[in-house]
């Protein structure tokens, strides 16, 4: 036996003298087969997860391959990325991206209007760069990128500001409105469908579209119940409801007119065997009723 084998045997013989070592070896002899089985199972789950993620990425790339340049071009509306005015890249900032956006949103227009609208979008963005540089210095605290997670991104804040300045940027404001209303996932449409199902039940099928739209706005975009904003809104709603005029009550029908109508309705049952005689009697009775009505009373 060589020296290495002797050293290994001597070390193992030294460990065998310890009771804890023997107990550990005994426990591992029972546990290791189960751990080996679990290892193979987890390895299969890991491979399944990797295949699923890979297929998901491939599907997303295939479906949004054409839209990816347009979505990537939205990054020019991030005021934090706007360079300084004296920087050489300020003049060329967003030139390629705004051209991509202009081509995408004017693709369905007639050829004689497409070029002019594209030039308007480019010209508006050339002015917008200077405003975005000013907004960069006055961003609210909720847009601070150092906060994790950020409540409102700087891009979203900038797009809202552009929408409020639609009279200065009529073309880009429409683009910003589309960007803000585009859902990132299908969670928002699913939430809206669930809200419609919750509001328009089978007991409320007569709801009109305007009332349904108002209820959906309150349910989806309304303020959360229990907050300070919701309390103030509820108080103002109660005051507005209490200060409104009472509903106009329609006058009731006169009692004598109702009695006259009830007494004038005659229910006649005719036997099939004596139909001709009964019809003659019915005509005479109706003539008598007409005479009584003209005289203004009943016998």
From TrEMBL:
Pfam families, A to Z: Dimer_Tnp_hAT
A GO term for molecular function: protein dimerization activity
Top-level division of the source organism's lineage: Eukaryota
Domain HAT C-terminal dimerisation: 169-216
PANTHER family according to UniProt: DUF4371 DOMAIN-CONTAINING PROTEIN, RAS-ASSOCIATING DOMAIN-CONTAINING PROTEIN
UniProt name for this protein: HAT C-terminal dimerisation domain-containing protein
């Amino acid at each position: 036996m060589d020296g290495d084998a002797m050293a290994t045997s001597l070390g193992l013989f030294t460990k065998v003298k310890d009771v804890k070592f023997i107990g550990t070896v005994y426990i591992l002899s029972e546990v290791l087969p189960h751990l080996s089985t679990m290892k193979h199972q987890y390895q299969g789950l890991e491979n399944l997860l990797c295949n699923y993620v890979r297929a998901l990425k491939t599907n997303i790339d295939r479906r949004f391959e054409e839209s990816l340049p347009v979505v990537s071009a939205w990054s020019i509306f991030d005021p934090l990325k706007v360079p300084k005015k004296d920087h050489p890249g300020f003049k060329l900032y967003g030139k390629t991206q705004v051209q991509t956006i202009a081509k995408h949103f004017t693709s369905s227009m007639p050829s004689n209007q497409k070029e002019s609208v594209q030039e308007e979008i480019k010209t508006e963005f050339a002015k917008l760069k200077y405003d975005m540089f000013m907004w960069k210095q006055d961003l609210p605290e909720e847009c601070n990128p150092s906060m994790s997670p950020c409540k409102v991104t700087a891009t979203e804040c900038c797009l809202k500001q552009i929408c409020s300045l639609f009279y200065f940027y009529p073309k880009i404001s429409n683009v910003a409105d589309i960007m803000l209303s585009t859902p990132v996932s299908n969670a928002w449409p699913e939430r809206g469908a669930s809200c419609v199902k919750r509001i328009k039940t089978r007991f409320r099928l007569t709801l009109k579209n305007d009332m349904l739209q108002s209820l959906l706005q309150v349910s989806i975009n309304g303020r959360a119940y229990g907050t300070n904003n919701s309390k103030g809104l509820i108080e103002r709603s109660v005051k507005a409801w209490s200060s409104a005029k009472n509903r106009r009550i329609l006058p009731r029908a006169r009692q004598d007119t109702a009695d006259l109508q009830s007494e004038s309705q005659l229910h006649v049952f005719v036997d099939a065997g004596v139909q001709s005689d009964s019809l003659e009697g019915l005509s005479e009775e109706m003539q008598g009723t007409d005479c009584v009505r003209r005289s203004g009373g009943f016998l």
